[in-house]
Design brief:
By secondary structure, the chain is α+β, with helices and mostly antiparallel strands. It contains eight helices and 21 strands. Helix 1 runs parallel beside helix 4. The structure holds FE2/S2 (inorganic) cluster.
């Protein structure tokens, strides 16, 4: 039987703490205990800043980080050629610097050094690779090309960058959380923030955290719901499988073909497993996602002689119209970090560097690259996004009269029968069958009637 659960969330202890039960105050409050929130809390606590982090889920690691591929690399698909060269340079270097300094702090058994490859199997993919290579050359990024890989199918071309990394993301997060707590960070789990005011947040249980600054690190920012800048964010869902294999690979792979695939190996219970995934689509727009799992299984059979994966799961990624994360101030004391695309582990390290600078009010040379203010090139896509959301809103009311209404901004949800969830097409909120929030920006449960 296939486990509909992440490989990383099997059999390992997760960090848990009590729900925050009293009003408190701090220098910096962080909402969200994923990689961004935890890395930022660790840095801030080390700098002597009083930091309080609240996480909605019952343990640290149950959010997006626990469903990621665990790649820590600055090779982010064929992304660099799609952004202006000056920004591509800052983006790439910020990731390289953040990854290197993070890896230096980790025990060596928590990560593996690998070569990262992007590859193509189609002519269209080849053209993207050529454009990315041209960008690497202009930015003096060290790389090599090859047609020989460990993959069991031919590639038309592959581009490798050495000294990249992969990990068990939940183990990394647990270690980082323990370090943050040792440095003095206060971390509360099972503590859902439901309201944001100018100088405090309110939790589900009515307790308040008063702050000098607030960092919203919740994947899709709950605090900025009415901002067009946030409406520009697009949410994509993709699928991942894990299957026992005979050997570990020396590389990690990502195709740049139109429907991309991600491939790496990992040890689980001291045995090698192949992680294989892809098949992205816009979140909340597919009522039957089973064919997405089935097609990955079919490819596993065809290419790897694997009849069924042992584990399979899905994950959501937030994309911005600029292709670069938004790590910026959105109100007097409020900052967001979001839009990491598929590169949450490395971009969250960059975010923690920038947020430390915002906390201490020191300028950071990369800050402007991660701000969307005044970027008018993104407005066309923003308007398309708003148009899509408007269409989803109207169609939802016409086509799904009985579907529950999302508690974020009122779109109709869709029943996802392969994963037993209610999914919202507008900003990617997900709810369990009984209406509890699995993923924001919604913070309130669905109101279900007895027929649902
Ligand atoms: Fe925004 Fe549902 S309306 S996530």
């Amino acid at each position: 039987m296939i486990m509909q659960e992440s490989l990383w969330l099997q059999q390992q202890p997760l960090f848990q703490n009590a729900t925050l039960q009293q009003d408190i105050s701090c220098d910096v409050c962080i909402i969200g205990g994923g990689m961004s929130g935890i890395q930022t809390a660790w840095k801030l606590a080390k700098a002597g800043i009083r930091v309080v982090l609240v996480e909605a889920k019952p343990a640290i690691g149950l959010g997006i980080t626990g469903y990621s591929t665990g790649k820590i690399t600055s090779q982010h698909g064929a992304k660099l050629y799609t952004v202006p060269l000056d920004k591509a340079k800052i983006y790439y270097n910020a990731n390289e610097v953040a990854i290197t300094s993070f890896i230096e702090k980790l025990p060596t058994d928590l990560y593996q050094e690998v070569t990262s490859y992007i590859y193509s199997t189609t002519e269209a993919g080849d053209q993207k690779l050529q454009q990315e290579i041209a960008c690497y050359e202009q930015l003096s990024i060290p790389f090599f090309t090859t047609k020989e890989t460990e993959l069991p199918f031919p590639v038309t071309s592959a581009v490798g960058i050495s000294k990249q990394y992969q990990c068990d993301p939940v183990a990394i997060l647990r270690y980082s959380t323990q370090q943050a707590v040792s440095a003095g960070a206060e971390i509360y789990t099972n503590s859902r923030a439901t309201k944001v005011y100018a100088d405090k947040i309110e939790l589900e249980n009515g307790c308040h955290v008063t702050f000098q600054k607030l960092f919203v690190c919740t994947h899709f920012p709950i605090a900025a719901m009415q901002k067009l800048r946030v409406m520009q964010l697009e949410i994509y869902r993709s699928y991942l499988t894990a299957s026992p294999v005979l050997d570990l690979m020396k590389g990690q792979y990502l195709s740049v073909d139109d429907s991309s695939r991600t491939i790496r190996t990992a040890l689980y219970n001291e045995k090698p497993y192949l992680l294989y995934g892809g098949r992205e689509h816009r979140a909340g727009t597919v009522s039957n996602v089973q064919p997405y799992y089935d097609s990955l299984t079919e490819e596993l059979r065809k290419h790897f002689d694997i009849s069924q994966p042992a584990f399979s799961w899905s994950a959501q990624d937030v994309q911005t119209p600029t292709q670069l994360p938004f790590i910026e101030q959105i109100a007097d004391r409020i900052f967001i970090a979001t839009g990491y695309d598929k590169w949450g582990l490395s971009n969250s390290l960059v975010a923690s560097e920038l947020l430390l600078h915002y906390a201490t009010e020191q300028p950071h040379p990369a800050a402007a690259t991660f701000q969307n203010i005044g970027d008018f090139s993104s407005w066309t896509k923003a308007l398309q996004s708003v148009g899509f959301i408007g269409l989803s809103f109207v169609e939802g009311y016409l086509a799904k009269p009985n579907a529950p209404i999302c508690t974020h901004l009122g779109c109709k949800t869709t029943w996802n029968k392969a994963e037993d969830t209610w999914d919202c097409p507008c900003h990617g909120s997900r709810f369990s069958a009984d209406g509890q929030v699995i993923e924001g920006p919604a913070v309130e449960p669905l109101k279900l009637d007895s027929s649902q």
